[in-house]
Amino acid sequence: MKFFMNFPVTETSHTLVEYRTRLGYQALEKALRMTPTDVTKEVAAAGLLGHGGAAFPAGRKWGVVKLGDGEPHYVCMNADEGEPGTFKDRWLMECVPHMALEGLIIGSYALEGRHAFIYIRGEFDLAHRRMAEAIEEAYAAGLLGENILGTGYSLDVVLYRGAGSYVCGEASAMLASLEGKKGWPRNRPPRLTVKGLYQKPTVVNNVETLANVPVILRLGATEFRKVGTPKSPGTQMISISGHIAKPGVYEVEYGYSWTKFIYEDCGGMQNGKALKCIIPGGVSTKLLSASEIEGVTLDHNSAVAAGSQVGSGGMIAIAEGTCMVRLAAVIQRFYHHESCGQCTPCRQGMGWMERILNRIVAGGGRPEDIDQLYKISEANDGTTICSLGDSAGYACSAILDHYREEFEYYITNGRSMYDGNLTVDDPFATSPFATSPFANALVGAAS
Amino acid sequence: MSDAVMPAAKKMLDFAIDGVPMQAVDGQTVIQAARANGVEIPHFCWHPQLSVPGNCRICMVEIEQDSGDPWFDIACNMPVTAGMRVLTKSEKIKTLNQDTMQFITLNHPVDCGVCNKSGECLLQDYHYELNGAASKSRDPKTHATKFFPLSDRIMLDNERCIMCTLCVRFTNEVSGSKALGAVNRGDHALIRPAEDADFNLDVYSDNVIDLCPVGALLSTELMTHARVWYLQATKSVCPGCERGCSIDVWHRKHEWKLNALDPRLNTTIDRITPHENPEVNGLWVCNKARDLAQLFERPRAEQSLQRGAPVDLSAAIAAAAKLMAAAKKPVAIVSSWGSNEELAAFHAAFGTTVPGFVKADHLPLPGEVIEDHLLIKPDKNPNRKAALALYPALPERVSDALPADTDVVLVWGEGFDSALVPSGAKVIRLDSYAHAANSTADVFIPISVQTERNGHYTNFKGVVTPFEACFPVKPSIVHAEALFTALAAGTPV
Ligand code: SF4
Ligand code: SF4
Ligand code: SF4
Ligand code: FES
């Protein structure tokens, strides 16, 4: 069963006209005839889980916002998909922008919102244009703006383009960015559903989460629940990349066999290589080796039981022969680059980890480095403002847990188990951010 | 009292820190409640009067739970709940504190030997208290700009900055200049002036120097000028305006007085910091207070004069007393910089016999902020309120106060033009600073300044605040308080 990828993608399949032929906006019409509370109840009854990574039940998130309290309520669509390997929301916005928009309108109605926001990753050009067009079409068709479909409900949508910071995908950082401030995450309490955008109750939902809402309203919670597993109802969009034969975006029902997905749907590994491991849902999720995914299904409970998560649906397949030390260094470079620099463990820990990994890669590893990497990961675990710090730690420690011998080999021999080392004169040359000239150059430019 | 006017009593909650039962006001965070109960939880980024970013992570505490694992969170952002059991010294917290200090010192330069914050640096204190271990890093530290002028007054050393954002929040939330922000990410994040703001225009800018928990923000004045352990603070009052902010005047300690170098350095004001006073200035002062050294260290008047000719202090006092005794229609121009004690002494000496008028010793300087939302008040004299309680203000038409038959005018303090004195009247001037008018007076007597005497000022709200002497007074200079009695009685001081 497919909710999103159930039509042939053509040059015009993203338009309102074609979306309507696929029963588009029927769910909105139905929702507007229901009370807002009933809409939320329906979403809760469907058991819809958040598709952004944390898998928090969407209905429950909506349910905590107090209606009729005289406060403005905001719904913000998180379209700042930035996890490496994750690009399924982009597909949704490029191919079915109206579905997400319809979900946003329904969600706003359920939460009695007068204004809704879409925060889209700055780099997503086509997705941005498609979303902007969809909004325009919706306004023209009376699906947005004053008195939607003559029901008296009014909603305006603001489409906001981020400036390209991974951490702005974190809900509180996104709201800070929307408010025009630096995209720094903030501590909870207070929760965003209590004090969010402009200090008002705000629900932040991922694109795919909102795109599921019209499906639920149209089919009804009971029908929706027939897809997927009891604890993870519905489908999951997965973007798969790496050394896989058929990379791309797929939609699977929760509960689908993982090995079947990799070896049949995605055609197995490139060039007939063996699968070494899978990073399941963006680099923040703990990797699982080829043997660990055997018997595991693609749903939240199964993934957690196997020691990882479905996460943001950004799967990366890694083939045998890949040097995990270098992979760890590349991942760490990302986290170092994207750490917002606000809280101590992440601000300092990310660079420290990257420098250690770069040194190992450059052939200058020391035996104590492995323990130190673990120690830094541990010191970030649960001690940071947002989860970027801990995620980076998990990513690194999961690689160490699985492939410690590769690190030991690299450190002892000054080269990778799989090929030669990368010795360069400056052991930090591989990181543009580790050295002073860069910092000073920036300062020079700024001053 | 009805319920409507009685403020609702805040609910009290029972909780415990490290096994000691305590009470907290509902709504207090753990760090606030701990403080109120005399327990200090380490903190870099938290400040009682600024918002809570929770970014330094040194205030982590453990919460014991009856069921389930203990949990850990930052004390500065966690509200106290009834029955909460907080641990601040558990093994896990010790480890977390050590880790945080390892992170904070990871790229922090070991500059302490040359850093002006040394001796007052929280980072040093916490390192010894909470960590004390050698660095676990074997990699070179990252570098950043060492000397970045944030304004003409403040130098930023980015390598020492721990990104606590206290300075940024101060300009956003207190001074309102919004002049600072952070650029870049990760460990290359830097504090920088906001593009469309000028930190020079923030008249409260120097408070960020005190706020900065490390030596990242330094006063260009104090930098390389004095080490804090050579200095001592004397409680005083800023005379810059009628707010009368409580301040500490820092000067060389007695045991560190210089013999060889210029001995004048022994009596210089090395820095001014705010002295917390909730009734007057809270925790802040404006930059005028920081610049008091310039005001107090103007060229002094140290020599008594009679019509411009140097005379002994006692001769000058005798001559002035004689003039006063012989005067038939004397008038006094009263200083609004005199202390309550001096004003009382003046009133006791001349209150019924000599009509007095209060003048402004200082007017706003060109470009000076006249008044603002925070502290600065329009009247640039610290004790006009107390003076006006005894004498009326000098009328705008000065001749109304000084009729043509006035025969002696006693001018106390600065800011009075001798040309306004009726011709034929004798002039006695009492002042601390070198002014041309001193030598045109019939008698001039040098008097002590605020930093040489004890006293009190009464501010615009009526709050009385003491100030203390930090420097000795020279034998050729007299305290006005003693002088007035002598002048009235015609006896030497
Ligand atoms: S964990 Fe990292 S990204 Fe998140 S707030 Fe802290 S420094 Fe910023
Ligand atoms: S300059 Fe000082 S006050 Fe400002 S963020 Fe850095 S350490 Fe904190
Ligand atoms: S507000 Fe007035 S009293 Fe306070 S520091 Fe500034 S000038 Fe001095
Ligand atoms: S004092 Fe609590 S995080 Fe800084």
Explain this structure to me?
The complex is a heterodimer of chains A (447) and B (493). Chain A is α/β, with parallel strands linked by helices and 447 residues long. Chain A is built from 17 helices and 11 strands. Chain A has helices at residues 16-21, 26-33, 36-46, 58-63, 88-95, 97-110, 125-140, 171-178, 207-219, 221-225, 258-265, 300-305, 324-338, 344-361, 369-380, 388-413, 436-446, and strands spanning 74-79, 115-120, 156-161, 202-206, 235-242, 248-253, 256-257, 275-279, 288-289, 297-298, 314-319. In chain A, the strands form 3 sheets. Chain A has a 5-stranded mixed beta sheet with strand order 6-5-11-8-9, with helices on one face. Chain A has a 4-stranded parallel beta sheet with strand order 3-2-1-4, sandwiched between helices. In chain A, strands 7-10 form a two-stranded antiparallel sheet. In chain A, α13 runs antiparallel to α14 (344-361). Chain A is globular. Chain B is of the alpha+beta class. Chain B is built from 12 helices and 22 strands. In chain B, the strands form 6 sheets. Chain B has a 7-stranded mixed beta sheet with strand order 15-14-20-19-18-16-17. In chain B, strands 2-1-5-3-4 form a 5-stranded mixed beta sheet, sandwiched between helices. Chain B has a 3-stranded antiparallel beta sheet with strand order 6-7-10. In chain B, β6 (148-149) and β7 form a beta hairpin. Chain B is elongated. The mean pLDDT of chain B is 95. Classes of the chains: A alpha/beta (447), B alpha+beta (493). Chains A and B meet through α13, α14, α15 and α17 of A and α2 and β8 of B. The complex binds iron/sulfur cluster (3 copies) and FE2/S2 (inorganic) cluster (FES).
Which small compounds were modeled alongside the protein? iron/sulfur cluster, FE2/S2 (inorganic) cluster
What portion of the residues of chain A fall into strands of 2 or more residues?
5-15%
Give the radius of gyration of chain B. 28 Å
Low-confidence stretches of chain B: none
Bulk shape of chain B: elongated
Q: Could you describe the largest sheet of chain B, including whether it forms a barrel?
A: 7 strands, mixed
The overall pLDDT average of chain B reads 95
Helix fraction of chain A, binned, reads 40-55%
Individual helix count of chain A: 17
